[in-house]
Amino acid sequence: MFLSIFDIFKIGVGPSSSHTMGPMVAAARFLASLRASDFTAHGLRCSLHGSLAFTGKGHATDRAVILGLAGFQAETFDMEAAEAVLAQIYSTQRVELDGLAPLAFHPARDLVFDYERALPGHSNGMILCAVDMAGDVILQETYYSIGGGFVLTEAELGQDMTAPSWRANVPHPFHTATQMIEMAETSGKSISQMKWENELSANSHPELSNGIAGVWEVMTACIDRGLDEGGILPGGLKLRRRAKAIMAQLLEERGQNLTAPHTINDWISVYAMAVNEVNAAGGQVVTAPTNGAAGVIPATIRYYLDHVPTAQPSKVADFLLVAAAVGGLIKQNASISGAEVGCQGEVGSASAMAAAGLCEVLGGTPKQVENAAEIALEHHLGMTCDPIKGLVQAPCIERNGLGAIKAVSAASLALRGDGDHLVSLDACVETMRQTGLDMSNRYKETSLGGLAVNVANC
């Protein structure tokens, strides 16, 4: 399996890649299957299982499923249009689509949060059905949202559906960090150069350049939007947006020449928090590698561009290529899903990716880049996913800020060494996988343990 940069970085909507984007994708896939079938459907049904049931309401999973069935897609999501369609479906209790007869769908009855029955393939499972006039099921499919917006059917789950044939023929087919370093040393190329050449196996030079530029454009616009918006986040926690006020304080201190050295951490944090406040409000973000960790990489890049004197904007593409290479290794050999391995797989992975990217654009060797990723991931091992009230707000927003700070520190530490170190990135990734297997499901995005039950959430 070789994951493209555009598999790792997807433009979508908040608050969750696995609980919002994934179910929307699954619903759209089911709709496509229905259109391609010979069945005449009268109505639609959906049941959510495992983590999708326990934290689905906080993650807007119900909204995502309904909108997916109504034809919405994450990449082109229009919030205003979505609200209008949702209101219409709740009012008429049916979904109206071009080329299909109106389909009965009563959200309160036909969208079930099944807290009792977990599905065997993954903790993020859902079943979609189409029924005839008598209410008999005529088409049914089980989908699993496996993290980062990736969705597989039950049949696909045991297959390598994320690896089209071109990915088996890339010039640098590294599947572990060890192989990545060996190939870099043999070829004399940087990790970003190898990743670029791999991507050219499927994309033309303009397509790749424009696609990467588009990813960064959405990321940096998300930071700016978050820094410009105040108010209270939706969901019931009454959590106030903080990024705008913190930025105002930082700018005032800078103007008065009152900035303390440690304040750089606040700059890094505020960039990340801005992104995750937009995500928490259901705005457009880039999965990096998930929505819950969407702020770490943009914040680290913004730190590099705005605070490092030698920064070169042209190196943003190199940063993202390296980050995607590391993210692909983690996803392939462990997981980026909070529902599978806890937040070590989300913010931990994002921090490792950001550390690697920053290390390379600061002049790090491939061995130093691998070391940076390992340092960042190692110090997120065991981190649980325990969102209060099932919302991607607390502790998630601040956690992205600290993940970005760790990424910068990890890159800096790696650059102080020669790349030789005791714990390899491969060992760290395998440890994360094993830790996830041993971790109680109470701490895997179910909101059944941790802060989610020890903090009043109303």
Key descriptive features of the protein:
458 residues; alpha+beta; 60s Ribosomal Protein L30, Chain: A; 5-stranded mixed β-sheet; two-stranded antiparallel ribbon; 19 helices; globular
In short:
The chain is an alpha+beta fold. The protein has helices spanning 5-8, 17-36, 51-54, 61-69, 79-92, 107-110, 177-187, 191-199, 205-228, 243-255, 264-280, 296-307, 316-333, 338-341, 347-361, 366-378, 396-415, 425-438, 451-454; strands at residues 10-13, 43-50, 94-95, 103-104, 111-114, 124-131, 137-147, 150-153, 284-287.
What this model shows, in words?
The protein is of the alpha+beta class and 458 residues long. The chain has 2 domains: 14-158, 60s Ribosomal Protein L30, Chain: A; 165-454, Orthogonal Bundle (2-methylcitrate dehydratase PrpD), CATH 1.10.4100. Helix content is 50%, strand content 10%. It has 19 helices and 9 strands. A 5-stranded mixed sheet has the order 5-2-6-7-8. Strands 1-9 form a two-stranded antiparallel sheet. Helix 15 (347-361) packs antiparallel against helix 16. The chain is globular and about 70 Å long. It starts with a helix and ends with a helix. Mean pLDDT is 94; it is low at 161-166.
Biggest beta sheet summary: 5 strands, mixed
What would the principal axes of the Cα set say about the shape? globular
CATH fold-type name of the largest domain: 2-methylcitrate dehydratase PrpD
**What is the tally of beta strands?**
9
